[in-house]
Design goal:
Layout (H helix, E strand, L loop, with lengths): L9 H6 L8 H11 L10 H19 L6 E2 L1 H24 L3 H10 L1 H14 L4 H25 L11 H13 L1 H5 L7 H21 L2 H18 L2 H21 L1 H23 L11 H10 L1 H7 L10 H10 L16 H30 L5 H20 L7 H25 L8 E2 L1
Antiparallel strand pairs: 1-2
Helix pairs in contact: 2-3, 2-7, 3-6, 3-19, 4-6, 4-17, 6-19, 7-8, 7-10, 8-10, 8-11, 8-18, 11-12, 11-18, 12-13, 13-14, 17-18, 18-19
Length: 441
């Protein structure tokens, strides 16, 4: 006689526990479920959620302190990169002086070593990725509806959520792409579930379009073809990319906003090239030309590197330093009115030098490389890591916020901890190489 299998409720399925009881692990899963839902709608949700998850992680690790969790080589490398990233900040601040800017930046920078504690706790909690993925699905709906509410009910010029479009658009873009790796673990593969996910995706695309955020558009255009070739056979992927190209051309020809932004970017680049040709030492640019301003700020990087190539000028010292360069006639005065160069890679290079840029690239490239190399063992978990890495890599091209602002950093570290732990567990359960030489934390 077969024993009956107890029915698992949807809530328990999302939380990854068959026995719903009040415990540290259950509370941790519940916080992971809530974390992505209100990222763009509630003030300080990402930063506050990160702090709560960290405290719960400390408590969970203390409760299970007698049960060690084996750490495998890829995990030890990631932990080492997080420590190095923070150590570079400490070294840069020590060299440039522990002034008010460094103290102000400490709150954000401490999140990188704190992510180690978060990761160790996540590794001890089974199926910790499921509540986060469920929250992502709900978060796309909440953010998409918020975008429609902003524009059509509140009559705002663009969708912005609680903060602004430069946070709303990119975060919604990231959540949209993460619907793909969420489908399989959450068993959203039936016909009705796929139709529901497609409907949610259309809602998200509407919110992204209404945000009018440049880095959201850039990431959408860059990641869609890459994800198509990752998820589909190459012939189908070519068809999808062709359809996307046709839609892009139609949008350029028929949507005034998109047409104007493309023309503005092109004319701005040409104008800056001509200005630099006329006066290479100090090109004349307009304060109303965003492209020329960005290119001038990027040109100023050579002066930062010349002065402090190894450890940079220190966190949040960019603004004071570029004003000095403008006063010396080395940089256009309009470029000195901004507190960062609108590019995360150059911002880190300016403020932390080549050591800082190297540690940032390692934090991006190593998890992505490991996920791509081992994608055959679990395509869903590998896709989650690759989407996160790719999104932040493209975000960083036109803005400095992804690795400077606390909310962006909190999202990256929580998602990276969960997705990387998920992928390591998946690879470990399907292969043998990771079983060699595990260590106890």
């Amino acid at each position: 006689m077969c024993r009956s299998v107890p029915r698992v409720s949807p809530l328990n399925e999302f939380l990854g526990s068959h026995h719903l009881e009040f415990s540290c692990e259950t509370l941790f899963r519940f916080c992971l479920l809530l974390f992505p839902i209100f990222l763009v709608t509630v003030e300080h949700w990402a930063s506050g959620g990160y702090s709560i998850l960290f405290l719960l992680a400390v408590f969970c690790l203390w409760r299970t302190r007698r049960h060690g969790t084996p750490l495998y080589p890829p995990e030890r490398v990631l932990i080492g990169i997080l420590l190095i990233y923070f150590a570079v900040f400490l070294a840069s601040s020590a060299v440039n002086g522990w002034g008010q800017p460094a103290v102000y930046a400490l709150g954000t920078e401490l999140r990188f070593p704190a992510a180690i504690v978060l990761y160790l706790a996540i590794r001890r909690i089974k199926n910790s990725h499921k509540p986060l993925l469920a929250g992502i699905v709900a978060g796309v709906v909440v953010a998409g509806l918020n975008g429609l509410f902003d524009v059509y009910i509140m009559d705002r010029p663009h969708a912005m959520g609680h903060y602004d479009r430069l946070f709303f658009g990119p975060v919604l873009t990231l959540l949209l792409f993460l619907l793909y790796p969420a489908a399989s673990p959450l068993r959203l593969t039936s016909r009705k579930a796929v139709i529901g996910l497609c409907t949610i995706a259309i809602l998200a695309l509407a919110g992204i379009a209404l945000s009018k955020a440049r880095m959201a558009y850039l990431t959408l255009v860059a990641l869609l073809p890459l994800l198509s070739f990752y998820a589909l056979a190459w012939r189908k992927a070519i068809v999808v990319v062709g359809i996307m190209a046709a839609l892009g051309m139609w949008s350029y020809s028929n949507i005034d906003f998109i047409h104007d932004r493309v023309i503005t970017a092109y004319k701005g680049a040409i104008a800056y090239r001509d200005a630099l040709r006329d006066n290479q030492s100090l090109p004349r640019i307009s304060s109303k030309d965003p492209v020329s301003l960005r290119l001038e700020m990027w040109r100023a990087t050579k002066f930062f590197v010349a002065d402090s190539p190894i450890l940079g000028v220190g966190r949040f010292n960019y603004e004071s330093r570029i004003r000095e360069l403008a006063a010396q006639g080395l940089v256009n005065q309009f470029a000195a009115d901004h507190s960062h160069p609108h590019n995360a890679y150059l911002a880190i290079l300016d403020e932390k030098g080549f050591l800082g840029l190297t540690s940032l690239l390692a934090l991006l490239l190593y998890p992505g490389w490991f996920a791509f190399q081992t994608r055959r063992f679990s395509r869903s978990s590998a896709a989650a890591v690759l989407i996160l890495i790719g999104a932040y890599a493209f975000f960083s091209v036109t803005e400095a916020s992804p690795f400077i602002k606390g909310n962006y950093v909190a999202i990256y570290l929580v998602f990276l901890s969960v997705f990387f732990a998920w992928h390591v567990r998946s690879v470990r359960s399907r292969s043998t190489p990771l079983h060699a030489h595990p260590s106890k934390e």
